[in-house]
TrEMBL record:
Assembly: Homotetramer.
This enzyme's EC code(s): 1.2.1.3
PROSITE patterns, per database record: ALDEHYDE_DEHYDR_GLU
Residues of the Aldehyde dehydrogenase domain: 31-489
Molecular function GO labels: aldehyde dehydrogenase (NAD+) activity
Record flagged with keyword DNA repair: no
Protein name from the UniProt record: aldehyde dehydrogenase (NAD(+))
InterPro entries: Ald_DH/histidinol_DH, Ald_DH_C, Ald_DH_CS_GLU, Ald_DH_N, Aldehyde_DH_dom, ALDH7A1-like
Catalytic machinery residues: E263
């Protein structure tokens, strides 16, 4: 247990320094809505939130700027993202300070999140010269078919607290090189990260002479998010959050024929086969399950272990959990920081109680710690719970560090357990058997959007598309062909024959 803690005043001072270094006018953003740090539970700042009228004005400005930005050549648009990446690199530590202060991530994870932003800028700059379309063979003589891609419009981004800046950058870097403009409604607990990120993008736009109005951040609650979702001027809504949120907003977007890119819940599993390298598996499991205090969408929540090795592996996991340093994320050596708030702690406790009622056995963890020293902060011991295969609580995602252990006898059974939940984000198998690895990654294997071999469920790289299936929403962000989500496709037929033959042999006089 880590007992070295900064005071709330010290955290607030660090936040002020970081904001000023980035270029945020702290007086201009000050208001009466308190910002609390999960590290101590204390107030570190107060911000001004926006109204519905402010959101309307932001969307209107973004729609107007789109008419100019879409005409700028894509490689020139890429220069804005290149400059943004340079500023993010320059202020990596400052932005990392804000992420730790508002989310409670340990320093290495906070810096890693900012590095994701830098990485997506690198990818997007290259992509700005590769918005490829295809040339298609025509069945008609003297004709050419071509696929072309065009800017889509205003993109609304709704982000979650657990990755307060990275996910926004995934969307924004690609949207801006695609020729779109962006309106961002960030999570309520993380306004300072959002304002700082927006300030750096504004500096980049000024430095390269980009048009005004390309990007906007609007702070507010549920009503602001709903208004953004319902606005017909917003061509695409990219929303990250819970399955419940997705069920609420998806019909609203579909009802106005808008586009949705949804990144919702994850109830991720890892299979450990008899042939697995248990040392490797142990490291991958513990980070994926306990990292970020279980508050990643890709957190490992279900461990499916072959019955023949469960007694070898699970005690080692329990022992490893006993060595995890829990405490202030800003203290060197801390591995597990706080939960975001009391509601998250209550959800964890309710899930553990339900697990026991449904036949589970808590093998370790689950208790609140450091409560006497920090009564307004919520630090918990990551929990490991042995569960029967069929239990209701295992079907649900609890955004806290709980790892349910299940057993299996055959690979078919393990795959069925992996797939047997509503969510479909990330999955993994630990095995040195190539047949098992190939089977798990095949069409009849994992039904998730991310399917890993000999690595945990978390830690995705920018180059690969990120997202999941089923109740996870089906969206894809970041690498691969994700840029296409931010553009509209057109098929062009060019007739240079001087004649007018019709397709499919149709004759019309």
């Amino acid at each position: 247990m880590s007992t070295e803690f900064p005071s709330t005043t010290e955290i607030a001072d660090d936040v002020q320094r970081a904001l000023k270094a980035i270029g945020v006018d702290t007086e201009a953003i000050a208001g009466d809505v308190e910002v609390r740090t999960p590290i101590t539970g204390g107030v570190i700042f107060s911000v001004r939130t926006q109204t519905a009228d402010d959101l309307d004005a932001a969307v209107a400005a973004a729609a107007e700027a789109f008419t100019v930005w879409r005409e700028v050549p894509a490689p020139v648009r890429g220069q804005l993202i290149k400059r943004w990446g340079e500023l993010l690199t320059e202020h990596k530590a400052d932005l990392g300070t804000l992420v730790s202060a508002e989310v409670g991530k340990i320093t290495s994870e906070a810096l890693g999140e900012v590095q994701e932003m830098i990485d997506i800028c690198d990818l997007a700059v290259g992509q700005s010269r590769q918005l490829f379309g295809k040339t298609i063979s025509s069945e008609r003589p003297g004709h050419r078919l071509a696929e072309s891609w065009h800017p889509l419009g205003v993109v609304g981004v709704i982000s979650a607290f657990n990755f307060p800046v990275a996910v926004y950058s995934w969307n924004t870097a690609l949207a801006l090189i695609a020729g779109d403009t962006v309106v961002w409604k960030p999570a309520e607990p993380t306004p300072l990260c959002s304002l700082a990120t927006d300030a750096l993008l504004a500096r980049a736009a000024t430095d390269v002479g980009a048009p005004a109005g390309l990007h906007h951040v609007v702070l507010g609650g549920r009503e602001i998010g709903q208004r953004l979702v319902e606005d017909t001027r917003v061509a695409l809504v990219s929303a990250t959050g819970s399955v419940r949120m997705g069920r609420e907003i998806a019909p609203l977007i579909a009802g106005r024929f808008g586009r949705a890119l949804l990144e919702l819940g994850g109830n991720n599993a890892a299979i450990v086969a008899p042939s697995a390298d248990l040392d490797l598996a142990l490291r991958g499991i513990v980070f994926a399950a306990a990292g970020t205090a279980g508050q990643r969408c890709t957190t490992l929540r279900r461990l499916i272990v072959h019955r023949s090795i469960v007694d070898q592996l699970v005690p080692r996991i329990v022992d490893a959990y006993g060595t995890l340093s829990i405490g202030s994320p800003t203290t060197d050596g801390t591995l597990v920081g706080p939960l975001i708030n009391e509601a998250s702690f209550n959800a964890q406790q309710a899930a553990l109680a339900a697990a026991v009622e449904q036949g589970g056995t808590v093998l370790c963890g689950g208790d609140r710690v450091l409560a006497d020293e920090h009564p307004n902060a919520y630090y918990v011991q990551p929990a490991v719970v042995s569960m029967p295969a069929q239990s209701e609580i295992v079907q649900a995602e609890t955004f806290a560090p709980i790892l349910y252990v299940l057993t299996y006898d055959t690979l078919d059974e393990a795959i069925a357990l992996n797939n047997g939940v509503p969510q479909g984000l990330s999955s993994a198998i630990f095995t040195t058997n190539q047949i098992e690895a190939e089977r798990f990654t095949s069409a009849s294997g994992s039904d998730c959007g991310i399917v890993n071999v000999n690595i945990g469920t978390s830690g995705a790289e920018i180059g690969g598309a990120f997202g999941g299936e089923k109740a996870t929403g089906g969206g894809r962000e970041s690498g691969a062909d994700s840029w296409k989500a931010y553009m509209r496709q057109a098929t062009n037929t060019i007739n240079y024959s001087g004649q007018l033959p019709l397709a499919q042999g149709v004759e019309f006089i």
